[in-house]
Amino acid sequence: MSVFTKLCTGLLISALSLTAQAAQPEVQNPDQLPTEATLDVADTREVIQVLYVSNTAEIKLSDLVSERNPDADLQRYADELARDHSFMIKLLETMANVKSISLEDNELSEVAQLTSTKMEQEMQNLAAKPVEEFRPAFLEMNIAMHQKTLEMFNKIEQGNTDDALKAAIGIFRQLVEKHLSDAQKLQSPSEPAQPAEPTQPVE
Questions:
Q1: pLDDT at 69
Q2: Does domain 41-186 have CATH number 1.20.1260?
């Protein structure tokens, strides 16, 4: 376990110690991922469930990349996603256990179910892409998801009063920001330097 991981886990456990004392609905229209307008950021149970299903979907997404025989750079990125989202899931499971929040499918909030359904649809669409379209589509999907996630983190930090949850969001933010930056670099690799124009002699 890295020093960063140990530090993150220690911070979250400390925050958890302060708070420890203290019919599946039909999905009608999963066309949009839940945003701050539909997610009740003040509801710690709903936030944890949404984060849990989102991170679970991210791991499935990284597995999909491996199945498509990606280039070395994309595989390294997928491995990074799988490792970091597995870490986030463990912290969410710890929080959920302390707070007696169920993460079972049949006990998820409507928003969490909608999130899961939408992400499954997006993965199915991505899996159907031909080889030449898969890489750019995967990176575009990841960039959009991570941008929305960071926006959601801002709203949670502003609208939720749970110290343990906010501590976890602080940890998650660092990882998601790196995922976003790495995806953007893979999407737009640095162009090779162009040779300088020859200097014109001074007449």
A1: 76
A2: yes
